Give the backbone structure.
Amino acid sequence: MVDHGEITMLAQKLGEELGKRHWFATSAESCTGGAIAAAITTISGASNWFDGSIVSYADRIKHSVLGVDVKDLKQFGAVSEPVARQMACGVLAMMDANLSVAVSGIAGPNGGTEEKPVGTVWIAWAHAEGQEPVQIDARCFHFQGDRATVQAQAVVEAIKGMLAILDDHPV
């Protein structure tokens, strides 16, 4: 079970670290339905380091708003590395941000398959500073628990990944 105090603590730390670097963050969310943005905006002053979020639950929104390739959606499915990477890049390009996170998964209780069981979540992080090219990383997680627990675990890992990137970019 995820402690919601942990999510708040991680979001607070994210804000502090982004503020030190004068960076902005953004998110593209599917299975978390805006929970990352909600966690971040519970922190006072988040407008100083958070640009916004796109909840792209439907594939057509992933394509039309975030620029995810329709061929990749058909070939790999929404819950896949290529789609999560494109979501992260799409939202980063759309916002005036340095760091993005994208989440696409199967929170359950339905929707899982043998290949992609309930709890399968792809998270991708993209970042750029100034003229440097966009750097992208992605990871697949297999969370356990009910829908809310899977979503909360995804939020924790999404923010932890953002903090890891910031650790690699000292002030």
